[in-house]
Specification:
mainly alpha, Serine Threonine Protein Phosphatase 5, Tetratricopeptide repeat, 4 domains, 24 helices
Length: about 425
């Protein structure tokens, strides 16, 4: 109920007393204080979104939209929260309001395309992606424009879209030779374009039916006749040398050297004492890694228990440090769920702590939750920008470079 109120009561920016008053105020004496209020509302919205408090996030973003009715960011942010709340229809309205204010807003275009896809409207989603591709190309991001055009073609096949992807890929190959991001976008585009040309020669596969006609394999029959003559000769040979074969194989002579060699071997092995010390270090190496995974796991549990005790005692700062240490210990031990739980508990104490959110992003990626990790890093990047926190931005971008170099939104944020 709160979310719907926050989204429905936002001004469109096309007129009205509230919008005109806000616009006039933003150009008057109080512009500085209004801008600080706008930044504070956005920050509260981002923090609430990071903590999963969707209603509070919608309210804070709505407040930012009232303070600065000409800004598209609050409406686009509301659209993202409503999409997470499984309210895609309301999200579409919020994204369209953002695009009314900024037709080339990338966050609104991308979010609207995703929501339309969820609603089962691939053709409409592809049209939005066409607009996003043009906006990216206009901003000089040809690789991202090519990748976005490819996604539009995947959603809704059409000759103009196919031609557009081919043109973008050709330009990208000429303008960015050797660039990894460009090469990836080109490869994906070519992979999508190739099947239409290769699909034609495929029906030529039924040709191997000809070798199947070679069923009359009567050749093995004469071989059976030759085999029939062989047993006669074998029987004669077996009957003749039977008496001679008994005395010839002197088993005693063969056994004697074998036993002698066996007796000589045990004598030599104790003398060669060099082999024994080689086995000892190998055994020691095997036993060392066994306790290693147990120690960090136990350490994480111990740190978590101590941190929770500090939390219940009202010592938030110490609890935060302990929970962060516990989460890292759990991660080293491979206990990812326990690590996420420790971070979530610590966020209740320090909701805007970049260390916690960066660690959570790493944990999400460890578990394969890419979308959650990307959303968290985008929000954290916005907070760092609002706070002019260069250190957090640098650490965030280092994580992006190491683990998400193919995510265009994060790469753009770190550019």
């Amino acid at each position: 109920m709160t979310g719907s109120k926050g989204s429905d009561s936002r001004p469109s920016g096309k007129g009205g007393q509230r919008a005109s008053r806000g616009t006039a105020a933003s150009t008057g004496r109080g512009s500085g204080s209004l801008y600080e209020r706008y930044k504070d509302a956005l920050r509260r919205g981002h923090v609430a979104a990071l903590r999963g408090r969707h209603d509070a996030a919608v309210d804070a973003y709505g407040e930012a939209a009232e303070i600065a009715p000409d800004r598209a960011l609050p409406h686009a942010s509301i659209g993202g929260i409503l999409a997470k709340m499984d309210r895609p229809a309301d999200a579409v309205v919020a994204y369209e309001r953002a695009l009314d204010l900024a037709p080339r807003d990338e966050a609104a275009l991308r979010g609207l395309a995703e929501v339309l896809t969820r609603l089962g409207r691939p053709t409409d989603a592809a049209s939005v992606l066409d607009r996003l591709s043009d906006a990216l190309d206009h901003n000089g991001r040809l690789a991202d424009a090519t990748d976005t055009a490819r996604r539009a073609l995947e959603l809704a096949e059409s000759r103009p879209r196919r031609t557009h992807v081919e043109e973008l890929a050709t330009r990208l190959r000429a303008e960015s030779p050797g660039d990894e991001t460009a090469e990836r976008a080109i490869a994906l585009a070519m992979k999508l374009l190739e099947p239409a040309e290769v699909a034609e020669p495929e029906p030529a596969e039924p040709e191997p039916a000809e070798p199947e006609a070679a069923e009359p394999e009567a050749e093995p029959e004469p071989e059976a006749e030759v085999v029939e003559a062989e047993p006669v000769e074998v029987a004669e040979v077996e009957s003749g040398p039977e008496p001679e074969a008994g005395p010839e194989p002197e088993v005693i002579e063969a056994d004697a050297p074998a036993t002698e060699a066996a007796e000589a071997e045990p004598v030599e092995t104790p003398e060669a004492g060099t082999s024994e010390p080689e086995l000892e270090p190998a055994e020691a190496v095997r036993t060392e890694p066994v306790p290693e995974p147990v120690e960090p796991a136990g350490l994480g549990i111990a740190l978590g228990v101590a941190a929770e005790a500090r939390l219940y005692a009202g010592d938030g700062a110490e609890a935060r440090e302990g929970l962060l240490a516990a989460a890292r210990a759990h991660r080293r031990a491979g206990r990812l769920i326990a690590a996420v739980d420790a971070c979530d508990l610590a966020i209740g104490v320090a909701p805007a702590d970049p260390d916690l959110h960066l660690l959570l992003a790493d944990l999400y990626l460890d578990r394969g939750w890419r979308t959650l990790a990307v959303d968290k890093l985008l929000l954290l990047g916005r907070i760092a920008e609002l706070d002019a926190d260069a250190a957090t931005r640098e650490r965030l971008c280092a994580l992006v470079t190491a683990r998400l170099p193919d995510e265009p939104r994060l790469v753009e944020m770190c550019a």
